[in-house]
Amino acid sequence: MPKTLQQQIQTFYDASSGLWEQVWGEHMHHGYYGPAGTERKERRQAQIDLIEELLHWGGVSKATAILDVGCGIGGSSLYLAEKFGAAATGITLSPVQARRATERAAAAGLGDRTQFQVADALKMPFADGRFDLVWSMESGEHMPDKLQFLKECHRVLKPGGTFLMATWCHRPINESPLTQEEQAHLEKIYRVYRLPYVISLAEYEAIAHNLGYQNLRTADWSPAVAPFWDEVVRSAISPAAVVGLLRAGWGTMQAALSMGLMQSGYRRGLVRFGVLAGVKE
């Protein structure tokens, strides 16, 4: 039987997360290189800077109960829990990631106020209004139903709580639809990174508006994050990375060999990095 999308995502991250942590660190997302992408900085610092920039841009200066949707190995969850002195919950489709995040939390002395579990973001196992910050750092692109994803994030927010999302998008299509060649480029990215599809930032904003999110803000940070792929490609040729890729298997190796798809996607303006902030009334 062919694997479902969820099973494909789980398998991909079960296999690749250990290598990513070994070579690229605990934050499994882009880095921030200044508004124009011209600031030179160490890759892991750039990833932390992306977290801080998103918090600042979204106007979040405190939180007590945080949900990290698509938590990876707990990079954002642990950072935010420590920064705000908050309780943080992370969900992922990968048991390997959830287990490693739990280990990392214990090692950081945060095991008493963080928890990580395998759960589906489209039907979260949480009561309404549980969290005052719902954080989604590059997980929206994996969601096969964008409407249901934003609906669930809204449901679990407390009144007055904030939703902050950063996600892969494609270029705006209000003036011209995607060409066949552009769609073919995206399809290659979907196959490699186990994505159902991506949408434009304007489409995300429309969905959020219709769901009742207030104080909506969006921004395109593509120039700020695009240099990250150049950094990752350079580091992928290190001996440790090469050995790790061979051990991780073909799926992870294929993703590494296909990083140029993201580089060229950013260069041509097809791949975009969108951020969105909204508040539950």
Automatic annotation (TrEMBL):
Key word Lipid metabolism present: no
Chain segments carrying region SAM motif II: 129-137
GO biological process: methylation
Domain Polyketide synthase-like methyltransferase: residue ranges: 19-280
UniProt-annotated stretches for the region SAM motif III: 156-165
Gene3D superfamilies membership: Vaccinia Virus protein VP39
Keyword terms: Methyltransferase, S-adenosyl-L-methionine, Transferase
One matching Pfam family: Methyltransf_11
Keyword Methyltransferase applies: yes
InterPro entries: Erg6_SMT_methyltransf, MeTfrase_dom, Methyltransf_11, PiNMT-like, SAM-dependent_MTases_sf
Domain of life: Bacteria
PANTHER family named in the record: GERANYL DIPHOSPHATE 2-C-METHYLTRANSFERASE, ZGC:194242
Similarity comment: Belongs to the class I-like SAM-binding methyltransferase superfamily. gTMT family.
Protein name: Methyltransferase domain-containing protein
Source species: Thermoleptolyngbya sichuanensis A183
